[in-house]
């Protein structure tokens, strides 16, 4: 893809019933590889706090950290529609603070959309950011930033009453100015209804096959994560074993003195070693 994908392109894809492919990644190298595929969107998620930094939740992601890695992703993937995750406490304190932080992502990292984990309490924030000329992706359903309050996540909208609440919330988000929705961990039947009723693109994460697009994190796609994975995660490669094998091969060659060899070393120009030895001898005899 040579032309940058815009939000208008995503909206056209929805209207033409073409699926949107989204990947969550966190670094320049991975983003550069993703940009060479048919992926239209990259989300730099605050899950980087877990995947990159080893924390047990997303809450430790800071604005400075998120802006830095988002800018790195943009440098690696100039052509995709880039979305940044507004981290914990970057938009909850006040609308003024939310606007300032959203603006940092746009000006310092080149994002096209800001993702906010949203409830009714943040409709004014979504409206304020949208009114300021910045696009918002409203993240509803399971909201990882609420882990300290909820304690444990479970699938959303699995009853009729819960479904009606989430459908109403989705409509409120769009009315407030959201340019896209992300549905996480939502019952597939309800995700289908929300997608059909929404005029904006709806991206699913563990919300069934009927959303306008799907997103997974790059380490899961590549098979780099070890241990239990979410039910909705799927690996399209098994790179963890290959990576371990490569590191072990390197360790073995270093231990055995096989690396570096002559091919992987720099050398003096012809005749210069003899000259050096002569100079060293003269120094020794001085």
How would you sum up this structure, described in words?
This protein is α/β, with parallel strands linked by helices and 286 residues long. The protein folds into 2 domains: 236 residues, Alpha-Beta Barrel (TIM Barrel), CATH 3.20.20.60; 39 residues, no CATH class. Helices cover 43% and strands 14% of the residues. The protein is built from 12 helices and 8 strands. Strands 1-2-3-4-5-6-7-8 form an 8-stranded parallel beta barrel, surrounded by 6 helices. The protein is elongated, with a radius of gyration of 24 Å.
Per-chain topology:
Layout: H1 7-15, E1 20-24, H2 28-34, E2 41-44, H3 48-51, H4 63-76, E3 81-85, H5 95-109, E4 113-117, H6 123-131, E5 135-141, H7 147-150, H8 160-175, E6 180-184, H9 188-197, E7 202-205, E8 213-217, H10 218-222, H11 239-255, H12 272-285
Parallel strand pairs: 1-2, 1-8, 2-3, 3-4, 4-5, 5-6, 6-7, 7-8
Helix pairs in contact: 2-4, 4-5, 5-6, 8-9
The fraction of residues in strands falls at 5-15%
Please work out how many helical segments DSSP would assign: 12
Count of discrete structural domains? 2
Question: What class, by secondary structure content?
Answer: alpha/beta
Examine the coordinates and then state which fold CATH places here, giving the name of the CATH topology of the largest domain: TIM Barrel
Features:
286 residues, alpha/beta, TIM Barrel, 2 domains, 8-stranded parallel barrel, 12 helices, 8 strands, 43% helix, 14% strand
Task: Give a brief rundown of this model.
By secondary structure, the protein is an alpha/beta fold. Helix content is 43%, strand content 14%.
């Amino acid at each position: 893809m040579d032309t940058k994908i815009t939000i208008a392109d995503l909206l056209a894809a929805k209207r033409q019933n073409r699926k949107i492919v989204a990947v969550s990644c966190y670094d320049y190298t991975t983003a550069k590889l993703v940009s060479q595929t048919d992926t239209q969107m990259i989300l730099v998620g605050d899950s980087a706090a877990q995947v990159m930094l080893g924390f047990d939740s997303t809450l430790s992601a800071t604005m400075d950290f998120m802006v830095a890695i988002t800018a790195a992703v943009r440098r690696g993937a100039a052509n995709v529609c880039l979305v940044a995750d507004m981290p914990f406490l970057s938009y909850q304190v006040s609308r003024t603070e939310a606007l300032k932080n959203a603006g940092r992502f746009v000006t310092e990292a080149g994002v096209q959309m800001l993702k906010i984990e949203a409830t009714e309490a943040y409709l004014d924030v979504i409206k304020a950011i949208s009114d300021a000329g910045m696009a918002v992706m409203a993240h509803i359903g399971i909201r990882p930033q609420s882990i300290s309050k909820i304690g444990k996540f479970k699938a959303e909208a699995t009853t009729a009453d819960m479904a009606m609440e989430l459908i109403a919330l989705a409509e409120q988000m769009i009315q407030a100015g959201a340019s896209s929705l992300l549905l996480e961990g939502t019952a597939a039947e309800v995700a289908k209804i929300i997608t059909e009723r929404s005029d904006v693109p709806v991206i699913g994460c563990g919300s069934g096959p009927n959303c306008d697009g799907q997103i997974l994190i790059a380490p899961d796609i590549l098979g780099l994560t070890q241990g239990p994975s979410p039910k909705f995660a799927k690996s399209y490669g098994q790179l963890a074993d290959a990576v371990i094998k490569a590191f072990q091969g390197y360790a073995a060659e270093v231990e055995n003195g096989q690396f570096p060899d002559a091919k992987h070393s720099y050398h003096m120009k012809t005749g210069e070693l003899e000259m050096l030895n002569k100079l060293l001898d003269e120094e020794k005899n001085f």
